[in-house]
Amino acid sequence: MARDLAIDLGTANTLVYMKGKGIVLNEPSVIALNRQTGEVLATGREAWQMIGRTPGYIVAVRPLRGGAITDFEITERMIRLLLQRVGVSRFTRPKVVICVPSAITEVERRAVTDAARRAGAADAQLLEQPMAAAIGADLPIDEPVGNMVIDIGGGTSETAVISLGGIVALEAVRVGSFDIDAAIQSYVRREHGIAVGERTAEEVKMAIGSAEPMEDETQAEVRGRDLMTGLPKTVVLTPEEIRFAIDDVVSSIVSSVVRCLAKAPPELAQDFLVRGMYLVGGGGLLRGLAARIERETQVPVKMSNMPLEAVVLGAGHCIEHYDALKGMFMGARR
Amino acid sequence: MTAGIVVVVLFVIGAGLLLGFSRRPRQDEGMATFRRHIDALSPEARRDVMDRARRHEQERS
């Protein structure tokens, strides 16, 4: 008998929670394929290390963009391999709850459930990421009070107000931490004339990236390919430059939080001033982001205890209490 | 004729009562389902998952 699973199928990472066991897998959502034969060469961390460093016949790709499947067949193969790694076979078909962005279309929803069923799931139910994040962040969403959660993932940023076990207000934008990386790549190319890969851009973001000026700021050396000469070149980037480069993306995220606050009923809005908003997701780890949101909304912002795992833990809780919580799944409400 | 009308009236009243009784449990069921839903989201219900995650986090660090 297969143990039921909860999956956070993120643009950046895929996490799997097994009923009764906890988190059993946490790997980048990347797959490496042989271009000529179509064979899978690696998945997860191993495939992630190949990004931008592969010979011509290998391609390492992220099959999800903006929280949605961009290549159905590759996503299905990636899910199948990940499920195999946690013990799912054609004889043990578990029930699966998958977290998806709340703004995905009907077609995208069907693509996710079909991919999971073909990959070995007996039944696939979808759960909105902000709801899962609020459960996983241990917010008191069973009470009649306003709980606000901001989930910043690789490809989407979602803000939700939750009370009495349901979403009261929601705002989602298809902008996330990958857009921050892309903005850094674009800035370095435009202002310094060098091309850098997405992994280098991510490293720069983690090293000196911030949404607000910080006290302990340092500069970073970046190596890339000179666009004029084609030769390797090193440039020095400052934190101010990176803040300028990523400001449009950060502003877009902050604006969506403001819009969600504006949608919240006044009775719940007063709760936020006392209880604050909770930040989850890898994108929420950008330095100074909580301070920037706090400055622009005048509402306290707190970081969740386990920001990277909150979504899968919330979905895991739903799989543990499947019958009582099945009304929360996306299909159940239509 | 009169007996027929009485039978029809009794039938209608009976059917009405039956319908009323059959609806009441459904309303109760709605309340029970909502209560189960809210209880399943309580901090007590979530304790197992959260404790397991914290242990996992501690082991990893």
Summarize the structure.
The complex is a heterodimer of chains A (334) and B (61). Chain A is of the alpha+beta class and 334 residues long. Helices cover 39% and strands 27% of the residues of chain A.
Structural class of chain B: mainly alpha
Number of strands of chain A: 18
Based on Cα principal axes, name the global outline of chain A. Answer: flat
Average residue pLDDT of chain A: 92
Q: How confident overall, as mean pLDDT of chain B?
A: 83
Using only C-alpha atoms, the radius of gyration of chain A works out to 20 Å
Largest sheet of chain B: none
Low-confidence stretches of chain A: none
Largest sheet of chain A: 5 strands, mixed
Question: How many alpha or pi helices of chain B?
Answer: 2
Secondary structural class of chain A: alpha+beta
Question: H/E series of chain B, N to C?
Answer: HH
Distance between the termini of chain A: 30 Å
Helical fraction of chain B equals over 70%
Largest interface: A-B, 22 and 19 residues
| Beta-strand proportion of chain A | 25-35%
- SSE string of chain A, helices as H and strands as E: EEEEEHEEEHEHEHEEEHEHEEHHEHEHHH
The helix content of chain A, as a percent range, equals 25-40%
Return Rg of chain B in Å.
26 Å
How is the quaternary structure best described? Answer: heterodimer
